[in-house]
């Protein structure tokens, strides 16, 4: 795995700023929780005598970064596509995400032995922020409700960004000009055949799930976990449950492919605390209570999909908090799950998330990053793997008699 050096970060930021800058702190942000992936690292860059605040993402040089393969389950969202997603979020919503300002994916003719993406943190972000995961136990009910209400509105705005097809985000295809020898064929054609399965969420989700099952059960791969021996899961039985869901068109009620974070969690939400301007807001000690708000979201969209909003990790059982739900639906009100079949669908999404966590944990071990502990992230990642190993058999048992109609 690549470890960014301060001199390298300084050169990258100096090139963008057009002047020589000095870095006071270069900290690796804990690559933690459901969003963990060994292929991408995030660094927080603080400059001397500058109000600018940057995040720097690094990723190993890899052919998939230039041309991601839709059928490769190990493909996370590559940096160029992540840059495009963040730009879309920033330009079309008020979600506070870091803005892409510079990138070098190919190594710039040997100058770098890694790809990188430089992001500018929103100006409204306070200089001192902490993750919601670390602050949650200390926030008052009022502070937490405000943060979760805001989170709900941001999730709704994120899901409002739509695409023509489902699946992993891919780089836009360059337009092809029609010629006498290569006539324009509407609906696909030319050198590449149109993948019509991407226009069905059911087809897309089943393929994504099968890719993970194949990766975790591939012959000759001795890395843990063994789904059958260790977790007691009969994969063929699980596939029979999936066939039943497919026959009932369980996943075919999704019409618009929305942008889904999938793995977003408390560790990815940065919260600022500032003294409230309202003097009449007091806590039990008769001291002004700090105002809590979301400063920005970490750019941990490596597992993002165009798909069903119900797939968000925040929406898994027992469901989002009341404040998140109110923020998500606004004054119109509403519920995420109305019918029993939707509850069954949500169980399948939890199965997908658990398999993804196990797969990333295995990839981390293969890359030699499974036992590292960056700012506590190693312990958190191990706890998520333990969560996945615990929840997966429970989900499979639930699916045995789960209604699909």
Give a quick account of the main beta sheet: strands, pairing sense, barrel closure. 5 strands, antiparallel
**Principal-axes shape call:** globular
> What is the element string, with H for helices and E for strands?
HEEEHHEEEHHHHEEEEHHH
- The radius of gyration is 22 Å
Structural class: alpha+beta
Helix content: 25-40%
* Average pLDDT level: 85
Number of helices: 10
Distance between the termini: 47 Å
| SS elements, strand count | 10
Strand order in the largest sheet: 1-2-3-5-4
Strand content: 5-15%
Residue runs with pLDDT of under 50 for 5 or more positions: 65-71, 178-191, 370-377
SSE topology:
Blueprint: H1 6-17, E1 23-29, E2 41-47, E3 53-60, H2 63-66, H3 79-92, E4 99-104, E5 114-120, E6 129-131, H4 132-135, H5 141-159, H6 201-217, H7 235-247, E7 258-260, E8 269-275, E9 290-297, E10 305-307, H8 322-329, H9 340-366, H10 377-399
Antiparallel strand pairs: 1-2, 2-3, 3-5, 4-5, 6-8, 7-10, 8-9
């Amino acid at each position: 795995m690549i470890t960014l050096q301060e001199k390298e970060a300084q050169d990258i930021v100096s090139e963008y700023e057009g002047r020589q800058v000095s870095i006071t702190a270069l900290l690796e942000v804990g690559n933690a929780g459901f969003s963990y992936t060994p292929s991408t690292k995030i660094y927080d860059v603080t400059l001397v005598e500058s109000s600018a605040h940057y995040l720097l993402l690094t990723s190993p040089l890899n052919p998939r970064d230039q041309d991601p393969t839709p059928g490769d389950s190990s493909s996370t969202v590559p940096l160029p596509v992540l840059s495009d997603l963040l730009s879309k979020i920033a330009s079309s919503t008020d979600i506070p995400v870091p803005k892409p300002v510079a990138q070098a994916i190919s190594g710039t003719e040997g100058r770098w032995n890694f790809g990188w993406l430089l992001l500018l943190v929103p100006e409204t972000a306070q200089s001192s922020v902490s993750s919601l995961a670390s602050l949650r136990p200390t926030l008052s009910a009022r502070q937490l409700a405000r943060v979760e209400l805001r989170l709900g509105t941001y999730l709704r705005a994120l899901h409002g960004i739509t695409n023509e097809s489902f699946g992993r985000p891919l780089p836009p295809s360059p337009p092809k000009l029609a010629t006498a020898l290569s006539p324009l064929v509407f609906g696909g054609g030319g050198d590449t055949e149109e993948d019509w399965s991407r226009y069905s969420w059911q087809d897309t989700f089943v393929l994504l799930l099968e890719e993970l099952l194949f990766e975790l059960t591939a012959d000759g791969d001795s890395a843990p976990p063994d789904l059958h021996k260790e977790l007691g899961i009969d994969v063929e039985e699980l596939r029979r449950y999936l066939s039943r869901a497919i026959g009932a068109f369980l996943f075919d009620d999704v019409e618009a492919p929305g942008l889904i974070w999938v793995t977003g969690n408390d560790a990815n939400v940065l919260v600022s605390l500032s003294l409230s301007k309202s003097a009449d807001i007091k806590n039990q000690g008769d001291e002004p209570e700090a105002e809590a708000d979301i400063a920005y979201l970490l750019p941990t969209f490596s597992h993002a999909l165009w798909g069903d909003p119900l797939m968000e990790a925040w929406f898994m059982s027992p469901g989002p908090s009341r404040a998140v739900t109110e923020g998500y639906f606004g004054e119109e009100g509403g519920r995420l799950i109305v019918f029993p079949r939707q509850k069954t669908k949500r169980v399948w999404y939890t199965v997908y998330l658990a398999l993804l966590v196990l797969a990333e944990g295995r990839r981390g071990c293969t890359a030699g990053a499974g036992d590292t502990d960056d700012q506590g992230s190693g312990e958190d990642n191990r706890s998520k793997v333990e969560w996945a190993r615990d929840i997966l058999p429970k989900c499979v048992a639930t699916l045995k008699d789960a209604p699909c109609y």
